[in-house]
Amino acid sequence: MSEAEANGLMLKADKKASSSGWFSGPKNDEAAELYTQAGNIYKLAKRWKESGDAYCKAAEMQMKMGEKDEAAQTYINASKSYKKSKPQDAITALERAIGILIERGRFQSAAKHQEDIATIYETELIDLEQSMRAYEQAADWYAGESSTALAHKCMLKVATFAAQLEQYEKAISMFEFVATASVDNQLMKWSLKEYFLKAGLCHIASGDSVSSHNAVERYCDLDVTFGSTRECQFLQNILSAVDNGDVNQFTASVVEFDQLTKLDNWKTKMLLEIKNSIGNSSNLI
Fold first, then answer.
1. What span, in angstroms and rounded, lies between the C-alpha atoms of 177 and 168?
2. What are the structural domains, with CATH classification, of the chain?
3. Which in 26, 39, 129, 261 has the greatest CB count within 10 A?
4. What CA–CA distance (Å, rounded) separates 114 from 193?
């Protein structure tokens, strides 16, 4: 099999697709099959754009024949090829597939592929705003299907990106929602201190000292074990340093925490934002 063969199949498919009339069903079916074969050959040759284009044409033929489930899968195949070289085209193909899945009431599958869109925005296009929106939509669909764990996973992504975009209220809301929903879940209780820590850092970064103190107290009420954790003590130490406008106290608290619990890039960024605000008392309530 060669690219030349794939090119020939595309020409044959185009001819059949363009000669459709009142009784075009068989021709559309043949065109769809030829486009799919061409897409497969292009894929083997690593001609990613050509492969995606061929699959999309096959999907269009399947839609004309009312074969919506097949068309959705073909658009998904197109997205996999496009992702190698044309991430935005991969998103477009997935959006077409998702539209079909939603129409068919397949919300779980739609959510999964909406999550794929979010990942492309996150890792390929480096667009946190769009990725956050896509994860939020996926979370809604997962929640509607009672896929709670998957919904929470997407919500945590939304919270993480919202904080990076300084949308602290949104981040706090998401972190606290997942934490509250996990209080009575024995499998998730170990994660509570992490969620509370992240929500607390968002509170402090927002510049509202009173709200931050109230939040830490509320977290201790929600989970009676949180008050004895290093995460809770760390939040209290950071708050004290911010309230006192003491950069040295802040730095010492961060170094002490990091020695036993290595800070990740997200927490480091949040802490830098907080450190830069110390001394700017006009931002504190």
1. 14
2. 166-285 (1.25.40.10)
3. 39
4. 29
